[in-house]
Design a protein that fits this description.
The complex is a heterodimer of chains A (145) and B (209). In chain A, α1 (26-41) runs parallel beside α2. Chain A has one domain (10-144): Transcription Regulator spoIIAA, CATH 3.30.750.24. A 5-stranded mixed sheet of chain A has the order 1-2-3-4-5. Chain A starts with 9 loop residues before the first strand and ends with a helix. The model of chain A has no long low-confidence stretch (mean pLDDT 85). Chain A has 145 residues and is of the alpha/beta class. Helices cover 43% and strands 14% of the residues of chain A. Chain A is globular and about 40 Å long. In chain B, α5 (91-107) packs antiparallel against α6. Chain B has 8 helices and 5 strands; from the N terminus they run ααααβααββααββ. Chain B is elongated and about 60 Å long. The mean pLDDT of chain B is 88. Chain B starts with a helix and ends with a strand. A 5-stranded antiparallel sheet of chain B has the order 1-2-3-5-4, covered by helices on one side. In chain B, β4 (191-197) and β5 (200-208) form a beta hairpin. The chains are: A alpha/beta (145), B alpha+beta (209).
């Protein structure tokens, strides 16, 4: 049976953005790795951004999944940055002594993009970035119409 | 905002991210033709059927079934959760165990960090059962005294861990990650006892609430 919840892989210029979310079982992890490496193989990919905002828990298994994905990408010459880790997750990983291997981390998606040289256009730097809370409130507004 | 709405949102939140949960729920409520604050237990059946197509996009069939069975129990008076027991046989059971651990912590009013700790401990122990034995059980007990704590008991009848001493000392690194997981679990706990033999493995891990 085909698993319906494949993790999306979004191409943003020459970067791959993977919003890791949902339950990442062995099958999903394998699918994700194959899909990402396939996308890297097609060429013109400078970097891989794994956004873990959508995960509420990262255990040693998930750490290993992310690390292996980054290692495989590295073998193909692509650098990986993990971003969007919550304070609770970071503390848990640190207490457990888990290692994310050679994976680099950034606080936010914006910072991850900046590490790859993507910047907000001139003159728009003053703009407040759109936050999840803004989206949430716009959902609430949309609904009361 | 109704308490039924809050319950629905917190249930969805355990399966999908906050933003997705809010969007999906908002859409379902719109489709039913009511407002957020009007959501009551009477709408649950109708909402559940409106939620299903969206949830299919995010959840595997096993997780969807588990969510739907939880949806069915919203609004019914539930006994105070003192302990739960779960069979761990397939990979989807790990996610269920995590979700139940989180649920139990939330009912106890635990802090976010405690929830994270307990759910991680449960996740690690459940995965060990799934990966290294043919199945086992995982229990979570709450004790109110002398101090409030949660004890996770994981029992399997697998072949046992032959190099436990090396693993706990950090001399052993497996490609599958058992070593780091089990050592890390111990660090998250106030108390961590592990007994292993060729007849099976029993782990008792205690987290303060």
């Amino acid at each position: 049976m085909k698993e319906p919840n494949r993790v999306p892989i979004i191409r943003v210029w020459n970067l791959l953005l993977v919003p890791v979310q949902g339950e990442l079982g062995d099958t999903q992890a394998e699918d994700l790795k194959r899909d990402v490496l396939g996308a890297i193989h097609t060429g013109n990919v400078e970097g891989l951004v794994l956004d873990v905002t959508g995960l509420w828990l990262i255990d040693s298994h998930l750490c290993a999944v992310l690390t292996r994905l980054a290692q495989a990408a590295s073998l193909m010459g692509t650098r990986t940055i993990v971003c969007g880790m919550s304070a609770e997750i970071a503390l848990t990983i640190q207490t457990m002594g888990l290692e994310l291997g050679a994976v680099q981390t950034a606080l936010s998606l914006e910072q991850a993009f900046e590490r790859f040289g993507v910047r907000a256009p001139e003159g728009e730097e003053e703009d407040r970035p759109v936050l999840e809370s803004d989206l949430a409130s716009s959902v609430a507004k949309g609904e009361s119409q | 905002m109704s308490s039924a709405y809050d319950q629905l949102l917190s249930l969805l939140r355990r399966y999908i991210s906050q933003i997705n949960a809010q969007n999906i729920l908002a859409r379902a409520i719109r489709e039913v033709g009511i407002e957020k604050h009007q959501v009551s237990e009477a709408h649950l059946g109708e909402l559940a059927s409106k939620l299903e197509p969206s949830l299919r996009l995010f959840l595997r069939p096993a997780a969807l079934a588990s969510l739907q069975s939880e949806l069915g129990s919203i609004g019914r008076p539930s006994a105070p959760l003192e302990s739960i027991s779960l069979a761990i046989k397939q990979e989807a059971d790990i996610a269920t165990a995590r979700a139940q651990a989180r649920d139990m912590c939330e009912k106890l009013g635990a802090r976010r960090m405690t929830i994270q700790k307990l759910a991680t401990v449960v996740s690690e122990l459940a995965r060990n059962i799934y990966m290294y034995s043919h199945g086992g059980t995982l229990e979570i007990h709450h004790a109110a005294s002398p101090t409030s704590s949660l004890t996770v008991r994981a029992v399997d009848s697998g072949p046992g861990i032959t190099n436990l001493d090396d693993i706990m000392k950090g001399n052993y690194k497996s490609r599958t990650g058992l070593g780091a997981g089990i050592r890390g679990t111990k660090r998250l706990c106030e108390r961590f006892d592990i007994k292993t033999s060729p007849a099976g493995t029993t782990v008792e891990a205690e987290v303060a609430v």
